[in-house]
Design a protein that fits this description.
19 strands; Glucose Oxidase, domain 1; single chain; two-stranded antiparallel sheet; Aminopeptidase; 28% helix; 11 helices; 501 residues
Length: 501
């Protein structure tokens, strides 16, 4: 019996011995399910109101994260401040106008456009080119460079084989027009007059106020008929028989735009390094989510409360190690960004206004959704993590992560989303992308939860699997520890060849 008890105790004893002999293992042990749950219950709680960028809930969340960074003993990451403030803008407009040969048409009766798709002021065109359905093949033999194109709704190409998420037939028409050199597109639609008023204020948030490089509006067959010189309206069903080519008519189009400015922030805490303090390792996650729709809160527990809390808990573990004499050689930058759900705005702003020299950034390890399982996986649906970026920018990054996993966490590393042909385009959809485009080697850790709770009010704390969340965060911690303490910065030896987002 005594012998059996000794055998049962050996794995535990070995684990304790490793933690005693290996400070990395010891301080990774501070990343516990209990600690993660405590922080996430606050960050994804009702008082944070879904943390929508530039809204009161986001500001409450930023204050909470800043408080935690101060508590851990981190230094402020933006001069004397823990927050990097940045402006965001909503476009609003008045006096939309569309006039053909002196005839003024009615908003929502015969035309409409989104405010962010139109420039400020009125522009005049003397001719336009009708290109049928506006598929790429429809441009053969037509010169549309610098001109306005008129396209017919419908007839769009099908998605390529295997493509599901992200395919948009309208985007395909716009891409064909832009590839041909057109400056704008009018889409002929049968959906006039509108039964629901088109808003004069944009729901899209931007970092700067600029006129679009390519504008887009939707028009009735009455407007389109005037543009091709017809005195009688050509019914929508007959437009497929209209001859393609150039038509002469004076078109005046535009609006008076006035942007509304709001403010958001990234929260940055710094743990200074020792002999390589002028080099940096970033640990990032986005703390914003979708906010509220009426009284309904979109909690964003997994997306990305889980990643943000992971960053916070790793910060606590690194800070605790430093206090016990195990300071990192490189400076650690713990950054939670906002604006991700609005188009990676916070990380884009940081990339253009960095607080440190990005050429001295060894890596960015980004966590965005690490608390759930992917039921679509044919293999283990929980003890895994999708890793994106392992074969991009640095050949040294994946071996470090794989070795850390083999030694400490032993979870399955799944690289399926690193396929350049991935129709979900995951590589482009989180904040690591804005580091990668600056040449910083990145790894993105992601659980693949795109199911029923994704961007729904049901993404709540009670559905988080904290045991596997802790293991995933520990993997990132171990990888960061190795990168922070190695002799050399990671090589930047793989060119960024993927197209722009």
């Amino acid at each position: 019996m005594m012998k059996k008890l000794l055998l049962l105790c050996l794995p535990f004893a070995a684990s304790v011995a490793m933690a005693q002999d290996d400070p990395q293992a010891k301080f990774a042990g501070l990343i516990t399910p209990k600690a993660l749950r405590e922080k996430l219950t606050i960050l994804a709680g009702p008082e944070m109101e879904g943390r929508e960028t530039a809204m009161p809930g986001q500001k409450k969340a930023a204050a909470y994260i800043e408080d935690q960074f101060k508590k851990f003993g981190l230094k402020p990451g933006n001069g004397e401040s823990y927050q990097q403030l940045y402006p965001v803008y909503f476009d609003a407009m008045t006096d939309p106008l569309l006039r053909v040969n002196g005839r003024t048409f009615g908003w929502d009766k015969e035309y409409t456009f989104a405010v962010n798709n139109m420039y400020n002021g009125t522009k005049t065109f003397s001719n336009s080119v009708f290109v049928g359905y506006g598929n790429a093949a429809d441009y053969t033999g037509l010169d549309v460079k610098g001109r306005l194109v008129i396209v017919l709704d419908g007839g769009a190409p099908a998605a390529t084989p295997g493509q599901t998420r992200g395919f948009n037939p309208m985007a395909a028409k716009m891409m064909a027009a832009r590839n041909g050199g057109a400056v704008g597109m009018l889409l002929i639609s049968s959906a006039f007059p509108r039964t629901t008023a088109t808003p004069l204020k944009s729901t899209r948030m931007t970092l700067q106020v600029n006129d679009p490089a390519f504008f887009y509006a939707t028009v009735s067959d009455e407007v389109a008929s005037a543009l091709i010189g017809r005195t009688a309206r050509v019914p929508f069903a007959e437009w497929k028989d209209v001859k393609k080519g150039n038509y002469v008519a004076e078109l005046q189009l535009g609006a008076a735009k006035k942007p509304e400015e709001l403010q958001s922030s990234n929260v940055i805490g710094v743990l200074p390094g020792t002999d390589k303090a002028d080099e940096f390792v970033f640990l990032t996650g986005h703390y914003d989510h979708l906010g509220k729709r009426g009284d309904v809160i979109y909690y964003g527990a997994d997306d990305d409360g889980s990643g943000s809390v992971g960053v916070m808990q790793m910060a606590e573990a690194f800070a605790a190690a430093a206090k016990k004499g195990h300071k990192p050689r490189r400076t650690m930058i713990f950054m939670t960004v906002s604006g991700e759900e609005k188009g990676l705005l916070g990380s884009e702003y940081y990339a253009e206004h960095p607080t440190v020299d990005m050429a001295k950034a060894s890596a960015d390890l980004n966590t965005d959704m690490i608390g759930r399982g992917d039921s679509s996986r044919k293999a283990d649906t929980l003890n895994y993590i999708y890793v994106i970026g392992h074969d991009k920018l640095s050949s040294e990054l994946a071996p470090i992560n794989e070795a850390a996993n083999k030694k400490y966490t032993n979870i399955a590393l799944d690289y399926k989303y690193d396929d350049p042909n991935d129709p979900n385009r995951i590589y482009y959809r989180s904040d690591h992308y804005n580091f990668a485009r600056k040449g910083v080697p990145i790894l993105f850790f992601y659980d693949g939860m795109l199911g029923a709770d994704y961007h729904r009010p049901t993404d709540t704390v009670d559905k988080i699997q904290f045991d596997i969340m802790a293991k995933r965060a520990q993997l990132v911690f171990h990888t960061a520890w190795e990168i922070a303490n190695r002799d050399n910065m990671l090589k930047r030896d793989i060119p960024l060849t993927m197209p722009a987002r």
